[in-house]
Design a protein that fits this description.
This protein is mainly β. The protein has two domains: 5-195, no CATH class; 201-403, Jelly Rolls. It has helices at residues 5-14, 35-48, 136-145, and strands at 51-60, 64-74, 80-84, 88-89, 95-96, 109-117, 120-122, 130-131, 159-160, 201-202, 212-213, 220-223, 226-231, 241-245, 253-262, 267-276, 282-290, 299-302, 308-310, 314-318, 324-328, 345-352, 355-360, 363-370, 381-386, 392-403. The strands form four sheets. Strands 10, 12, 13, 15, 20, 21, 22, 23, 24 and 26 form a ten-stranded mixed β-sheet that branches. Strands 1, 2, 3, 6, 7, 8 and 9 form a seven-stranded mixed β-sheet that branches. β12 and β13 form a beta hairpin. α2 (35-48) crosses α3. The protein starts with a helix and ends in a 6-residue tail after the last strand. 40% of the residues are buried. The model is unreliable at 1-23 and 154-198 (pLDDT under 50).
Length: 409
């Protein structure tokens, strides 16, 4: 059967909608989606967006609009955000914009999935952006993805992405002292504001391996904006290679990052509260990532004698004497449904005292309460390994650390 070009375009655009396909040629007949379909769409749009937030349009003109933010799930913490309308000035009398630019109206409240536009931000049709009143299930899915979303308290200067906003506009506040490497400008923060209090800080810049170190850095690079560990048959390490964050140790914390992994027997993970030992080997807790076996989403004792501490779908309590009690809260195979390891997935690690929780794409995959004397760890380093053997490739990006109760140092 032949496929016409219009039919092919219709199919492609239909994949972009999160709940109801509508304008800009992004769908055919609208149909209600299941909660699972909505959530899968939100995960996809969250990954593709630069900023995700809800807010009210407080002013707009032909080229720009400003939101008063009510909740921010992704992006730099800010009380207000300025975006481009998508219109481009051609000359003094004429401007143009794409039919796919979202048509925001002043005083309306929206859920916004913002993409990069020139040096700024813009929102398009077919990307999940919609009226906030129509977004109940989307907001629920976002809260699952980021339970500690930032909510502005009192007046804050707004986030400003780039030169699409006129510096002569009296509504725009710019601090040139906070210009980033790529030329974007970010708003000033009030004295005493801490990024950790507002959802954590990025500990990987997306461009270089500054602040990260491994015994042999030839296995690590930055590709696709991600820390990338690669082994081949020709270039294979004699033992595990760990790339370690050089920012110190972590105690009580939340860590969020995205990952994907390639290779039939690929194995990696995020070490946390771990100890750096001889030859750069890292011992301790690992939030497991693997393409085979029962390991993905579980907690492993790397180089330790206790091996699996909490399998996928299990909650394990270990008392002071090492006695274990494990209970199953979810089917291990069911937790894998919807996870494509060669696509970006969101990992979330929460460690408070002896209690450790892992989540992948918003679903709890394992819990551990570890009180064993001489074996449990209250603090340590963050690191990611590659392993020898079959060729593999693993990538980590958007690595964001939030310290809790001031216990990390």
């Amino acid at each position: 059967m032949k496929t016409t070009l219009p039919a092919l375009l219709l199919f492609v655009f239909s994949l972009l909608s999160t709940e109801y396909a509508a304008a800009c040629g992004c769908g055919g007949v609208p149909r209600p989606l299941s909660d699972e379909e909505v959530r899968a769409g939100i995960v996809r749009e969250f990954d593709e967006s630069v900023a995700v937030f809800s807010g009210e349009v407080v002013w707009r003109d032909t080229y720009n609009l400003k939101f008063k933010v009510t909740k921010l799930w992704k992006g730099e913490p800010a009380g207000e955000i300025v975006m481009s309308t998508g219109a481009v000035k051609i000359d003094e009398t004429y401007s143009r914009s794409s039919s796919c630019d979202y048509g925001f109206k002043a005083s309306e409240k929206y859920l916004v999935f913002a993409r990069s536009f020139e040096a700024g931000l813009v929102a398009y049709e077919c990307t999940g952006t919609k009226l906030l009143a129509d977004s109940e299930r989307d907001v629920t899915a976002l809260d699952d993805l980021n339970p500690t979303a930032y909510q502005p308290q009192g007046p804050l200067a707004f986030l400003l992405h780039g030169s699409s906003v006129s510096v002569n506009n009296p509504n725009v506040l710019i601090s040139r002292s906070t210009r980033t490497r790529d030329g974007n400008y970010f708003a000033r923060e009030p004295t005493g504001t801490k990024r950790d209090d507002a959802g954590g800080k990025l500990i990987f810049d997306g461009r270089t391996l500054d602040g990260w170190s491994a015994p042999d850095m030839s296995y690590f690079s930055v590709e696709d904006g991600a820390i990338t560990g690669t082994t081949t048959r020709q270039h294979n390490p004699p033992e595990n290679q760990f790339i370690v964050w050089q920012g110190g140790t972590v105690g009580d914390f939340e860590l969020r990052f995205k990952f994907r992994i390639f290779g039939a027997k690929a194995n990696s993970g995020m070490q946390f509260r771990s100890q750096l030992r001889e030859r750069g080997l890292v011992h301790g807790y690992q939030a497991d990532i693997a393409t085979s076996g029962p390991y993905l989403g579980g907690i492993w004792d790397e180089y330790g004698t206790r091996k699996s501490l909490a399998a996928r779908g299990e909650k394990t309590v270990i008392d002071e004497n090492g006695k274990r009690t494990s209970t199953r809260f979810a089917d291990a195979e069911a937790l894998l449904r919807g996870i494509n390891l060669e696509a970006w997935n969101a990992y979330h690690i929460i460690a408070r005292g002896p209690h450790i929780t892992l989540k992948i794409n918003g679903e709890v995959t394992a819990e551990l309460i570890d009180r064993e004397r001489g074996k449990s760890a209250a603090s340590g380093v963050l690191a990611m390994p590659i392993i020898p053997g079959e060729p593999m490739r693993v990538q980590y990006k958007d690595i964001r650390l939030k310290t809790l109760r001031g216990m990390s140092k």
